[in-house]
Amino acid sequence: MTNATESANGWNWFDAAGEEPEAIRAKEIDHWQACFATPAGRQVLRDLERQFIQTSLGPASNNAALWMREGQRGLVLQMMRLAQAIDIGQTDKASNAGKQNSQETAV
Questions:
Q1: Does the pLDDT value for residue 107 go beyond 80?
Q2: Separation between Cα atoms, residue 107 and residue 102, nearest integer Å
Q3: Cβ burial, residue 50 (10 Å; 0-12/13-18/19+)
Q4: pLDDT value for 13
Q5: Burial (CB count <10 Å: 0-12, 13-18, 19+), residue 82
Q6: Is 89 helix (H, G, I), strand (E, B) or coil?
Q7: Which of 2, 13, 82, 96 is the most core-located residue (most Cβ within 10 A)?
């Protein structure tokens, strides 16, 4: 097969197989950060959270409506996680380093 054929068939994702997982993850998250780091992006996330996470369906809702709402909720939570992933990762690293330093001084 040629590269044009492979791209047309969707097989070009194998090219990323040689990259380090952290490099791939950084590529996947950067555009989420850029999009939702703006005031407008943060407002969009707040609006989505208010509409789909902080509200509930009534007791008369059918199964289809419940499944639809759960899908919407899952999507909004995923968007929020990706938009904050780098900040959370840096916070986790800093808190782990602080814990490690305090454990070293205690020993």
A1: no
A2: 9
A3: exposed
A4: 63
A5: middle
A6: helix
A7: 82
Return the DSSP state at 97.
Answer: H
Torsion of CA 100, 104, 106, 107, to 10 degrees: 130
Count of Cβ atoms closer than 10 Å to residue 83 Cβ: 20
| Cβ atoms within 10 Å, residue 32 | 19
Show the 3-state SS of 7-65. HHHCHHHHHHHHCCHHHHHHHHHHHHHHHHCCHHHHHHHHHHHHHHHCCCCCCCCCHHH
Torsion on CA atoms 45, 92, 29, 36, rounded to nearest 10? 30
pLDDT digit string, tens, across residues 72-97: 999 999 999 988 865 544 434 444 55
At 73 the three-state DSSP class reads helix
Hey, what are 67's tokens?
């499944």
